[in-house]
Structure formats: structure tokens, C-alpha cells
């Protein structure tokens, strides 16, 4: 099996020597158990130690290894050479993000958006430890759990044509995270987050293309979260007409 | 990191247009196929009888209050749906300049035709 060779193209960009990104191709021994991330490690260990890429958990938990694999946003640790062999595999940094170096992108805008939506429980009133834990029934948890599975990998931003056109758009993961907290019965911060949702750059920047949900490696379905928020925002609009603040 | 100014949140008026878009889309998806089947296939082929869409019958329908409402909704809502889609489609196709004018033109057209149809129906009644 090791006689077989697979070609891996990597879009290289080293700011100190490249004016613009260039494609470089490596040939490595094919192994049907090898993930794309392991292939990158093979290249770094045996062929070219200058190749840069992000990774940590190797098991689709940390969300660091997002990249374009043959033009589609994927987690490098969750796709395998066997998914492509004998075709060539082309790796590029995540679309819609500025390249920092090789496959490493600048995530600042994405992180800022995640922070801006107040991704934490905003309690109605502070509870004393002696009052015990917040109780939640399985039915109450079911309302938001799917949207809580996000690992902040950014694949959905690489997939989103609206984010590609307008970087002001809040984007799929951050909006899904709003849905996650707004739908949590322990949370009382919905009104604050709706200000973000109600804007043109909020939920209304979405035209329901749905590709975010296709590429999401954790089945978060951000597109569904956004459509639910559109209904919330429309209700909020109606209420706002009668009760301007 | 800390921003020195307070962010001003601007509410979008999109819910109105999105509501009309959604209602129009629903109608288009569910009712248009049946309408096309009746007016474009069954009646012309004589399968429903040529008298089904005779001038007198349609006139009676259009001048009744419920007929007028049905016709108005069937014409206006899909129109709002279509022009909303065109407005957003223009953005997707890269026409990013003059969005305000595009908006006035798109929704203005839907509004004008709605008023036009409404006026005709009222005059007939
Ligand atoms: S919603 Fe899915 S694709 Fe988007 S950042 Fe979260 S896990 Fe990644
Ligand atoms: S390395 Fe953690 S998600 Fe791939």
C-alpha cells in the first residue's frame, strides 16, 4: 500500500518572501487511514519543515484545523486521503479570511463577532451558591443544545457568500450562538442580543443560501438558527412599532 | 481591544419586506402550480369546459368582494416576493452601488403595481 503515492498541493504564503500566494505540490506515500492533517504532519516532518498550519486536538473538537480541501471548507483532521485518492488533494487557507501564513488565517474578525454577541449566560439575578444550581429539564435543553455544539472553526464563514461580499455581516456561527443563548431558559440577555440580530448586518444580511449548514462539521445548522432568529426579529419589529423605545 | 465609542445599533426595516416575501413565496409555491394547471392546461385543452373562464364568469368573480380580494392577493404578494428576490439578487451579482435607488425601484415597482391592480379592482366593483 505504501507504494502508492498521492499528490498534495498546498497554497504557500510566506509574507517575507512571497508577494502573493503560490501553489506548491508534495508527493507523499498514500495510506487509507491517514487524515489530511496527518498528511500535513508527514510533509512537515519529512519533506518541508517550513509549512505552517494550525491544529491541536486531532479529533474535531478544537476547531483549529479548518482549511479549504479541494475548494470546500473542511476540518483537516476530519477528512482522509481515502476520500480523495487517487485524485490530487489541494489545500488552501480558509476562504474569506486574510492569510497570515500558508494555511494559517487571521481569525480576528470572527473572534470579535463571537465576543460581541455576549456568548455567556446573563442571569436574571445573581444567585447565591447556597441556593443551589440552575435547574433545566431535558425539554428546555433540547431547545438550544444543537446550537451549542459549535467549535468555532469558522468553516461556515468560509462557506458564506454573504460574508464574502460584506465583512460587516455578523455571520452564521455568531448568529447561531445568539440563538443558543437566547433559547436557554437560564438566560435573560435576549433583549441585548436582539439589538445585534435586528440590524441589516445581523440576521437580515442572510439570504438563506444554507451552505453554512452543509459544511458545518458539528451539525449545528446555523442556517436554521438564523431563520428562527428572523422570526424573532420580525416579532420584535412588530412589538417595536407599538412600543418604541 | 476596548472600543472608545458606544456602538449604535440600527434596526433594519427588512421584517416588512421579508414578511411580504415569505407570504408571496408561500403562495407562489402552493397556488401557482394549480393556477397554471387550470388556466394554462385544463381550460385551453377543454378538459374543464371552455366556459370555465368565460368573460362573464371571470367578471362576476372579479367584481365580487371575495373575488377581488383573492385576485389582489394572488397578484400583489408574488410580485413583492419576486422584487425582493431581485433586489437581493442584484447585491449577490455585485451591484453594490446605489442600493437605495435599487430599493426604491424594486419595492416601488411592487407598490405601484399593487396600487394599480387594487384601483382597477375597486373601479370594477
Ligand atoms: S457553526 Fe459549525 S461551521 Fe460554523 S464555526 Fe460552528 S462548528 Fe464551525
Ligand atoms: S485539530 Fe482540532 S478540530 Fe482538527
Structure overview:
- The complex is a heterodimer of chains A (about 240) and B (about 120).
- Chain A is α+β, with helices and mostly antiparallel strands and about 240 residues long.
- Chain A has 2 domains: about 5-105, Ubiquitin-like (UB roll) (Roll), CATH 3.10.20; about 110-240, Fumarate Reductase Iron-sulfur Protein, Chain B, domain 2.
- Helices cover about 35% and strands about 15% of the residues of chain A.
- In chain A, a hairpin with a 2-residue loop joins strand 6 (about 100) and strand 7.
- In chain A, helix 6 packs antiparallel against helix 7 and helix 6 crosses helix 9 (about 220-240).
- Chain B is mainly alpha-helical and about 120 residues long.
- The mean pLDDT of chain B is about 90.
- In chain B, about 75% of the residues lie in helices and about 0% in strands.
- The termini of chain B are far apart.
- At the A-B interface, helix 9 of A face helix 1 and helix 4 of B.
Short description:
Chain A is an alpha+beta fold and 245 residues long. Chain A has helices at residues 36-47, 108-116, 138-145, 155-159, 161-165, 172-182, 190-197, 211-215, 222-242; strands spanning 5-12, 22-29, 66-69, 72-75, 89-92, 99-101, 104-105. Chain B has helices at residues 14-30, 32-42, 55-63, 65-92, 99-124.
Amino acid at each position: 500500500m505504501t507504494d502508492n503515492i498521492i499528490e498534495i498541493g498546498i497554497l504557500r504564503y510566506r509574507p517575507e518572501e512571497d508577494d502573493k500566494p503560490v501553489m506548491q505540490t508534495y508527493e507523499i506515500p498514500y495510506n487509507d487511514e491517514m487524515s489530511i492533517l496527518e498528511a500535513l504532519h508527514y510533509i512537515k516532518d519529512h519533506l518541508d519543515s517550513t509549512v505552517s498550519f494550525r491544529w491541536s486536538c486531532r479529533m474535531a473538537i478544537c476547531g483549529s484545523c479548518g482549511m479549504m480541501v479541494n475548494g470546500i471548507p473542511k476540518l483537516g483532521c476530519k477528512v482522509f486521503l481515502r476520500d480523495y485518492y487517487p485524485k490530487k488533494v489541494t489545500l488552501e487557507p480558509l476562504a474569506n479570511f486574510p492569510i497570515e501564513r500558508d494555511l494559517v488565517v487571521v481569525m480576528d474578525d470572527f473572534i470579535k463577532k463571537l465576543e460581541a454577541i455576549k456568548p455567556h449566560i446573563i442571569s436574571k439575578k445573581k444567585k447565591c451558591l447556597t441556593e443551589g444550581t440552575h435547574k433545566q429539564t431535558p425539554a428546555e435543553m433540547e431547545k438550544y443544545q444543537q446550537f451549542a455544539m459549535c467549535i468555532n472553526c469558522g468553516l461556515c464563514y468560509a462557506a458564506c457568500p454573504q460574508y464574502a461580499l460584506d465583512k460587516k455581516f455578523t455571520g452564521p456561527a455568531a448568529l447561531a450562538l445568539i440563538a443558543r443563548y437566547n433559547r436557554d431558559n437560564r438566560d435573560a440577555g435576549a433583549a441585548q442580543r436582539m439589538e445585534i440580530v435586528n440590524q441589516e448586518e445581523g440576521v437580515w444580511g442572510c439570504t438563506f443560501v444554507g451552505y453554512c449548514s452543509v459544511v458545518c462539521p458539528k451539525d449545528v445548522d446555523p442556517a436554521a438558527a438564523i431563520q428562527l432568529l428572523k422570526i424573532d426579529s420580525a416579532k420584535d419589529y412588530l412589538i417595536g412599532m407599538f412600543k418604541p423605545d | 481591544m476596548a472600543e472608545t465609542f458606544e456602538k449604535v445599533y440600527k434596526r433594519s426595516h427588512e421584517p416588512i419586506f421579508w414578511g411580504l416575501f415569505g407570504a408571496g413565496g408561500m403562495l407562489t409555491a402552493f397556488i401557482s402550480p394549480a393556477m397554471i394547471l387550470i388556466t394554462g392546461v385544463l381550460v385551453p385543452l377543454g378538459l374543464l369546459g371552455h366556459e370555465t373562464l368565460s368573460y362573464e364568469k371571470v367578471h362576476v368573480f372579479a367584481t365580487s368582494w371575495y373575488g377581488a380580494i383573492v385576485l389582489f392577493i394572488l397578484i400583489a404578494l408574488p410580485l413583492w416576493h419576486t422584487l425582493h428576490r431581485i433586489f437581493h439578487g442584484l447585491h449577490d451579482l455585485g451591484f453594490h452601488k446605489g442600493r437605495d435607488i435599487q430599493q426604491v425601484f424594486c419595492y416601488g415597482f411592487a407598490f405601484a403595481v399593487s396600487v394599480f391592480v387594487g384601483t382597477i379592482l375597486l373601479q370594477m366593483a
